[in-house]
């Protein structure tokens, strides 16, 4: 008996900050077929024939692609966060190009155990420090305005401001070193 199904092999690229912790929903013929995370490969069995495939996250998506699936074969695709010039463009006029999706002649290789490079890890740490300092600074301002703990609020404000400013300088220095 001949195979009446083929496989769509979809690999999501490992690199980049955008959507680092979020998964994309895979739609085949506008029906959810699975979710794909960073660095993952999905093998989706579909009936032989022509199908429309696109990926979504929140209200953003990839352009729709036609997948001609032959019985008993695999068709390979790769997806990654799109290269939008700004976050505002990405979720407004570029919402339908938010995710990049393309066909490849063979399976995409993502080395097992690939870790985020040192620059990416340091920038993530700096970003968390910046936001932590900023949240502390805002909290101390609210604490000060409410009069809950006079005297201590100045120390907390100073620490929050110092962490925020130090992380801004660290990010700036890391950008200069890696240009």
Key traits:
179 residues, alpha+beta, Immunoglobulin-like, membrane, transmembrane, transmembrane helix
Query: Could you name the CATH class of the largest domain?
Result: Mainly Beta
List how many beta strands DSSP finds: 9
Helix content: 25-40%
Order of helices and strands: EEEEEEEEHEHH
CATH architecture label of the largest domain: Sandwich
Overall spatial form: elongated
Word description of this protein:
- 34% of the residues lie in helices and 31% in strands.
- With 179 residues, it is of the alpha+beta class.
- It folds into 2 domains: 100 residues, Immunoglobulin-like (Sandwich), CATH 2.60.40; 60 residues.
- Strands 2, 3, 5, 6 and 7 form a 5-stranded antiparallel β-sheet that branches.
- A hairpin with a 2-residue loop joins strand 2 and strand 3.
- It starts with a strand and ends with a helix.
Short description:
The protein folds into two domains: 100 residues, Immunoglobulin-like (Sandwich); 60 residues. Helices cover 34% and strands 31% of the residues.
């Amino acid at each position: 008996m001949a195979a009446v199904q083929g496989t769509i092999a979809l690999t999501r690229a490992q690199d980049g900050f955008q959507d680092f912790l979020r998964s994309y929903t895979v739609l085949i013929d506008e029906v959810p077929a699975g979710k794909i995370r960073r660095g993952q490969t999905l093998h989706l069995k579909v009936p032989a024939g022509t199908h429309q495939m696109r990926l979504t996250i929140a209200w953003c998506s990839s352009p729709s692609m036609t997948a001609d699936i032959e019985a008993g074969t695999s068709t390979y695709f790769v997806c990654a966060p799109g290269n939008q010039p700004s976050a505002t463009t990405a979720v407004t006029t570029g919402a339908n190009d938010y995710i990049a999706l393309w066909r490849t002649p063979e399976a995409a290789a993502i080395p097992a155990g690939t870790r985020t490079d040192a620059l990416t890890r340091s920038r993530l740490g700096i970003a968390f420090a910046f936001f932590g300092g900023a949240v502390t600074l805002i909290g101390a301002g609210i604490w000060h305005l409410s009069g809950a703990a006079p005297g201590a609020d100045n120390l907390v404000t100073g620490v929050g401001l110092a962490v925020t400013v130090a992380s801004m300088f660290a990010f700036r220095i890391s950008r200069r070193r890696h240009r």
